[in-house]
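Dear support,

I submitted the protein below through the web form. The confirmation email said the job was done, but the results page showed an empty box. After a refresh the structure appeared. I'm attaching both so you can tell me whether what I see now is the final result or a partial one.
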Amino acid sequence: MRELTVLSVRLVRQHLTLYLGCLATIVATAALTSAEAGLVHGFSDITRVHVAGFSTEEVATQLPGIRSILTLLAGLAIAISGVLMITAIRQVIASRQEELAMMRLTGASRGLLARMIASESFILGLLAGLPGALISTALTYPLFRGMQAVGFFGRTMTIDFRFPVGSMFAVTGLIATVAATAGCVATRISIRGDLLASIAPMARRMSWWQIAWRFVLILTGVVSLVVLDPQGMGTNIILILPILAVVPLLAAAPLAMPIGAWVVGRIVGLFAPGPGKLAARRAAKDRMRYARLVTPAIISCGILGGFLVANAPDEQMRTQALTAQVAADTVITTNLDDATPIAKALGHKTRQQSRLASRYRVAGGTRRMWHFTDAPAFAKLTNLHITAGDMSRVTGTNIASGIGNSVGDRIAVVDNTGHPVTLTVVAVFTDEVYEGLIFDWGQISALGPKNTTATIFTKGLSTGEVRSVLQSEDISGTVFDKTGFVQYMSDLRRANTYRSNVGLFATVYLMCLIGVIQTTISNGLSRRKEFQVLRSLGVSRLGILATVGVEAAILQVVTGILVFSVILALGFRFASNNGTSAWAAVSAALPTTAGAFCLIAVLTVVAQLIGSQVSLRYSSN
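What the results page shows now:
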């Protein structure tokens, strides 16, 4: 073991330039994962978490869920880094094929070489992981503030962060172990068969076994997508569904590569036959290496599009429900302090009006939405379905409940000063939009939110009349008709979806962007000998770069086909489950996904050309 470690250290020093891509991935993973571990550590002690307007008991009920999501995201980042490291280490092995083949000729077994590469990878994981974890100490608070900025955490939340020494070393050891595992797996995949296949990995095709298990994985993914019921899944579990849908795409990438190569080769061959045919044949023959290059793009765009398309049917249902429920002619949104003056000013023209301000609070140990309204008018203006009790009795500490309560139930809560208050349920309703508890507006000072937006529903007044009243009273507010208000709420939910997407998967996207740059540049740098052969055959530098550009186009075509397929599949699955339009869900997800796809495409082309240009310079020397 000692001799193997010494040999691994020497080989790491010798091949350090080849491992630069792995080092970048390890440092980034360690920094981001340790920062998330720092957040988990901060949320582990209730005495260090403070939220204005919430009691310690209310905050404590939310911490387990937050910790579980952050832990899931940190684990996801490490898992993705493992996939990226396998790709990077396989490229390193491809550059060391002759060296490793010579070792096999001298009697080294595949197991010994796998242990050697795993030892090298473990050393890299320690050397790069520890500095990355140290960097994370400066990233934890900015990460928290960034997640606050996108709405993942409340803006009034504060945390007393401390230096998590144990978490830092735990993450470093975990990343080093993942790196060693990735090295072992990459070695066993890359070095198998005869020595000719080890020296020239393009000489072998995919075996029937490789094709068969990929088809099995694809079929399993399709069956799971059909069988799993999104409505029966928990909130956190349903987030994993887009991630699970990406896994079959990674298995399908090598199978789809020849198709993309044929399409792009035919198109480019019409005006540039040389680069088109050369790139198409190489991509079709070396499908496994090209499939590894599209892995980061498939993961990032697939998760992004899958998350958006999975959320779209729910947005459609809520929009339809809001359109059917709102009976008001005009709706005003304003700040909380101006809600009562506006209501008084409009009261001279109509009696059919209700104010609304909402906040999340804990009631009976469960986090629920609290709505402060003029309850009887609100019930009429939003067509609430009252199943028991009387909304006119919602005054003082009497409330209406939308979930899991009966008339006469008592619910213990605390007010804004921390004093206990007992609420009595006097009405029960069912509603798809305004779920939770309904309070009388008079309780807003004791139990309600501060510095928030209020909504005022009115009937019998036009938007012009309302604007005239606001102008005469010199009060600011945004006035909508019913259609405009429904569209405003839809746009607001969509913006919240984007912020949640960024808060949940920003680490994944960043890891994938790093992976795109790392894999494409490393791929270009590993092709020096190939470029030397092409140059000796008379192919110009411009011709080689054109061929590389066509290869990049092939990669984007395959990525686009696979990502669009998963968006389409998830769109139909969620839409069929909710009875909404699948095409509307797909069209809602496409613009953002297409933007991310174009960004990754540009990065891929630029990185591939940079790596190829450097390799051409070395091959010329």
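Response: this is the final, complete result; the empty box was a page-load delay. Residues 482-525 form the longest helix (44 residues).
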